[in-house]
Design a protein that fits this description.
Elements (H helix, E strand, L loop, with lengths): L1 E4 L4 H5 L5 E4 L10 E5 L17 E5 L5 E5 L15 E14 L5 H6 L21 H11 L6 E9 L6
Parallel strand pairs: 1-3
Antiparallel strand pairs: 2-7, 3-6, 4-5, 6-7
């Protein structure tokens, strides 16, 4: 099962108020896919018992010289020691590609941010750039532009998948 990180929206996932997510990439996700929602996938702490995560160790060569060599336990990358924190199993109900700035008020709510929506604007059809707070937040964290094409993944929670 593919992992999907909800580090920035942990509260919304735990409260089950988020039913949509925008991702860079993710072009192959399809309806029916089940995803393992976790707190963090990448960037978890690494520590190797052989080299303490630095990737090399001091050793004594046959010639009695002391030298640095690449750690054979982790090949320099360290071993991931920070565990995955499960949040939920979700099932994809829809997936599409669109510009980030094409987000609608209903989408912002589905992303788990109802406080960023003006309730008087919920029925507006074409409101490109109407939600600069969400778009700005996404762009800042993902280092992209409002015009970037993203994958919009809509999902439902799989019963019995509480973390």
């Amino acid at each position: 099962m593919r992992l999907i990180s909800f580090m920035l929206t942990e509260r919304q996932i735990r409260e089950r108020t988020k039913t949509q997510t925008r991702r860079l990439g993710w072009k192959t996700v399809k309806v029916g896919d089940r995803l393992r929602g976790v707190l963090k996938c990448q960037g978890r702490s690494r520590k190797c018992p052989g080299c303490d995560g630095v990737g090399w160790v001091w050793t004594t060569l046959p010639s009695a010289e002391i030298a640095q060599i690449k750690c054979v336990d982790c090949t320099g990358r360290g071993k991931i020691v920070e565990p995955l924190v499960d949040l939920a199993i979700v099932e994809v109900t829809a997936a599409r590609r669109e510009r980030l700035d094409a987000i609608t008020p209903a989408d912002v709510i589905a992303e788990g941010f109802p406080d960023l929506v003006d309730p008087d604007r919920l029925n507006v059809i074409d409101i490109r750039f109407e939600h600069p707070d969400f778009v700005s937040m996404f762009c800042e964290h993902m280092k992209c532009l409002p015009s970037t094409e993203v994958t919009v993944i809509e999902f439902k929670y799989v019963e019995g998948s509480n973390a």
